[in-house]
Amino acid sequence: MSPQSLSQATEAIPVSPPVMVLEDEQPVETPQSTNTRFNEQRNRRTRWNEWLLDVFAMNSFSWAIAIPIELVLAGMSWSEHLKVRLLAVVFNTLIARPFSLYRNWVVGRFGRGGALHNYGVDTFVFLSFQLPLYILNMLLGGASSGEIATACITFMLIAGALGRPYGMYLDCLRRLWLSRRVEADSAVTS
């Protein structure tokens, strides 16, 4: 048989590539895959901690401001105040993180500046986020258009005075939280 006829003969034989079957194959952990998993857990924990910080900031600030307004100015009893505040805790918990994300976006868009600029940005954020929610709450509560108008004017005056203090309070809590996290992270890696 000639070499040429041998190659022609073997071309007709179907050959498949070798197949290796591994049973119970387990993924191999590499430093990169371990770091990825660690970073995913860390990001989840960071998002959770940011949510907790935003909820704490919104509720604690709201309660501190509501005490003199509701008890002194409005003349509410302690039991009425507690009922209103407990309901506010639910609503504040729902809106705290979206408000904080919105504030971050607006501040990122307009930047930081002098005291007047920062006051304007925080007041805009507070009014543009909270006023529509306040109006919706009053509409759902059955308030008349005159009551809504009066309440909105009052709310705008109060929000104008509270927007920047809340922004400063939130920034202060974030700085405290960030320094605590940096210390905790450095203790873990050491």
UniProtKB/TrEMBL annotation:
Keyword Metal-binding: no
Keyword terms: Amino-acid transport, Cell inner membrane, Cell membrane, Membrane, Transmembrane, Transmembrane helix, Transport
Organism: Microbulbifer pacificus
Annotated GO MF terms: L-amino acid efflux transmembrane transporter activity
Membrane-spanning intervals of the chain: 51-78, 84-102, 123-142, 148-167
Protein name, per record: L-alanine exporter AlaE
Cellular component terms (Gene Ontology): membrane
